[in-house]
Specification:
- The chain has about 525 residues and is an alpha/beta fold.
- It has 14 helices and 16 strands.
- The chain is about 35% helix and about 15% strand.
- Helix 4 crosses helix 10, helix 4 packs parallel to helix 11 and helix 10 packs antiparallel against helix 11.
- The protein is globular and about 85 Å long.
- The two termini are about 15 Å apart.
- InterPro entries: FAD-bd_8, FAD-bd_FR_type, Fe_red_NAD-bd_6, FNR_nucleotide-bd, RBOH/FRE.
């Protein structure tokens, strides 16, 4: 079990890792039957674990509609899911979610994968946005299915269901606070697809600025440093447009400076260094002077397409369930207390009326273990289950009277379940494809694109130290271990512990995880 948890094994044979780790059920049963005398020390953690599994099962059983799936030019996949309009503040920008596509393939039916979001909880479109880079078997299979559906739509072939529009969504998990807003200056550093949680932070700050929730003690300046290998990967950063969220964020006192570094030397055709303005220049012009071989390689690149669901206009949208371990605290507490109380009541009654009434050498381990397992099932499912059912019914009744999500604000077609799975399919219309081909190639962010260069963290932190005086600067890093180590070292060097004055800056380092 330990060996399959290693990153090398888990990324290549996820199915085996997933199956072997479910042997914890067998281990738990063996332990209860052979070491029953220790049950008093571990029964509460076992009960909490079973309750958590119950709530996760309830949340994950809902089939959530995928509003749209967009394959970016870098090959990354952008998915949009609907959120309950009454619970759009239930997650935070640095939250992560589990995703599952049951009909992707038989071997991947039970696979849950962990992803960070790029959307903000205050987004009025009531959508959860996730960007996935195809690296493993599951993500590559998802990308292939989407591209196949788009190709069939282009060629007018009979449309078949590549996989259901349904997805299992479970969460949120991770950070429970928006700690970054306490810093007046934030430094965001992301490598590759690691920029996705940083985009959620940018979106959240922009939404707060537009809603005039910012004051003098909160974020006023953001520096983003994004390292990518190829120019095409810039489309992930461009997937969030600050002008769509808060068009006048600069007039409201928010300053955002973006620096993108393209580290692949082949992008420069032998040039030592090039610098392009993100706002005014077409970033694809950086590739125009490459040799013929490199240009032919670009012809095999993925063309960006947006894939929508074919649905009835009046069909309801299945949103992410709010009944789960991260749902309303009062309901979670009632579920826990009722389940624990049900277990102890049933265990006490069984000791009085079953164990003590059997006088002929009542087996200590096995029969009592049977009783404990029965009491766990009774307390969790027969007492805690009705509470969860009541919670679900009240949420359903409350959602029925609330307005449906306004999904047209961002030009995304809605998706919801049809009558049968045979009627569900992805389709990419010619209009969608034309819109992607004519999409503006200039980045909406203010900053510089550095071609064929790598960031020198010592110089960057020197300039930050000169620019600001006496501030607590939050540094959030989402990238490789070497990048995190280098940035952490610079934060330590540029933070004075001895001899600090009122003009000295303090760099607070935070590591942001974007994958499991």
């Amino acid at each position: 079990m330990w060996s399959t948890s290693l990153s090398y094994f888990r990324r290549r044979w996820y199915e085996m890792f997933f199956g072997i780790h479910h042997l914890y059920i067998v281990f738990l049963l063996f332990w209860m039957y052979h070491a029953f005398w220790t049950i008093h020390f571990f029964i509460l953690p076992i009960l909490l674990f079973v309750i958590d599994r119950l709530l996760r099962m309830v949340q994950s059983r809902r089939s959530v509609d995928v509003l749209s799936a967009k394959v970016l030019k870098s090959g990354a996949i952008q998915l949009h899911f609907p959120i309950d309009p009454q619970a759009n503040q239930a997650y935070h920008a640095l939250s992560s979610w589990y995703l599952r596509f049951p009909s992707l393939s038989r071997s991947m039916k039970l696979q849950w994968h962990f992803f960070s979001v790029t959307s903000a909880p205050s987004d009025e479109t009531m959508q959860l946005s996730i960007i996935i880079k195809p690296l493993g078997k599951w993500t590559c299979a998802l990308q292939r299915r989407l591209l196949l559906a788009a190709e069939e739509a282009r060629s007018n072939q009979p449309r078949k269901c590549p996989f259901s529009f349904k997805a299992g969504v479970e969460g949120p998990y991770g950070d429970e606070t928006d700690f970054y807003i306490r810093y007046s200056t934030i430094v965001l550093i992301g490598g590759g697809i690691g920029v996705t949680p940083l985009l959620a932070i940018l979106s959240d700050v922009l939404h707060r600025t537009r809603a005039t929730q910012m004051n003098a003690s909160q974020t006023r300046s953001i520096h983003l440093y994004h390292c990518i290998r190829k120019v095409e990967e810039l489309c992930v950063l461009n997937s969030v447009n600050p002008n769509d969220i808060c068009p006048e964020y600069e007039k409201q006192g928010l300053r955002i400076c973006v620096s993108v570094y393209v580290t692949n030397s082949s992008s420069t055709n032998g040039c030592k260094y090039r610098e392009i303005d993100l706002k005014t220049a077409n970033y694809l012009s950086a590739k125009d002077d490459r040799n013929e071989t490199e240009q032919n390689e670009d012809e095999n690149c993925i063309s960006a397409v947006t894939i929508h669901a074919n649905r009835s206009v009046n069909s309801p949208v299945e949103t992410i369930s709010t009944v789960g371990p991260k749902g309303k605290s009062s309901w979670v507490a009632i579920t826990m207390l009722s389940s624990i109380a049900g277990f102890y009541i049933s265990w006490g009654l069984s000791n009085v009326y079953i164990v003590k009434n059997i006088r002929n050498n009542f087996p200590t381990n096995y029969n009592r273990a049977h009783i404990v397992i029965g009491c766990i099932i009774f307390g969790t499912f027969l007492l805690g289950g009705p509470v969860v059912m009541l919670w679900w019914l009240m949420r359903k009744r409350h959602s029925a009277g609330s307005p449906s999500p306004n999904l047209r604000k961002v030009n995304i077609a809605t998706a919801s379940p049809l009558e049968t799975q045979a009627q569900e399919y992805y389709c990419a219309t010619e209009t969608d494809i034309d819109q992607e081909s004519s999409e503006q190639q200039c980045s909406p962010w203010n900053g510089k694109l550095h071609i064929g260069d790598r960031p020198v963290w010592s110089d960057i932190f020197d300039s930050l130290e000169k620019e600001y005086n006496g501030q607590n600067i939050g540094v959030l890093v989402s990238g490789s271990e070497s990048m995190q180590a280098d940035v952490a070292s610079e934060c330590q060097k540029h933070t004075k512990v001895l001899g600090a004055s009122s003009l000295s800056n303090v760099f607070h380092y935070h590591s942001v995880s974007f994958e499991l």
